[in-house]
Design a protein that fits this description.
25% of the residues lie in helices and 25% in strands. With 183 residues, the protein is α/β, with parallel strands linked by helices.
């Protein structure tokens, strides 16, 4: 597929929105959440994402794993800060209208064991295509981050190959409701 990133983003955003409108995204979220419970069994500190629009909703992981610490990303300038999050934490909308916690950011991201990452689509080599802001790529390039990076998407968003640039950092695993692919 030789489409540029912009057209891929548009296509897969529309495709995911259609899954959401049909109600399929809820079933897919549930299947991926069950698989993630196995994947994070030995993890203690997990960066999750708050679902935005038609994204997968995996927040029930928090209620099911009370022995673990969960965090959400917070946009600070051009970067991601990692802030503690519990189900009852106060949230505020950022400039993209995504809910973020108001808790104090982590000083040491090396404690993270797993980063559960959203994407519009991903490929068999664990490259992901996000919204184009570069937040996760900048975050992933931090030398202190040693966490396993898992991108979660509906299987319909899994493709053969995504065009990528030198600054695009691939994940360690792509997880869909039907498959787990490791880099």
């Amino acid at each position: 597929m030789n489409q540029d990133k912009k057209s891929l983003r548009r296509f897969y955003k529309e495709k995911r929105n259609a899954l959401f409108k049909k109600g399929n995204i809820f079933d897919i979220s549930d299947k991926i959440r069950k698989k993630l419970n196995i994947e994070i069994e030995n993890a203690k500190n997990i960066l999750l994402f708050y679902p935005f629009g038609s994204e997968l909703n995996l927040l029930s992981l928090i209620e099911e794993n009370k022995d673990k610490n969960f965090y959400l990303p917070v946009c600070m300038g051009e970067n991601i800060a990692v802030c503690p999050y519990e189900a009852e934490s106060e949230l505020v909308l950022n400039k993209y209208k995504i809910p973020e916690p108001t808790t104090k950011p982590l000083a040491d991201i090396s404690i993270l064991d797993v980063v559960i990452t959203p994407a519009l689509c991903a490929d068999k080599n664990c490259h992901r295509l996000g919204y184009g802001g570069g937040y996760y790529d900048r975050f992933f390039s931090n030398a202190d981050l040693r966490a396993k990076k898992i991108v979660v998407i509906p299987d319909e968003m899994f493709i053969e190959s995504i065009p990528y640039d030198s600054f695009d950092i691939k994940c360690d695993m792509v997880m869909t409701e039907l498959r787990n692919v490791s880099a």
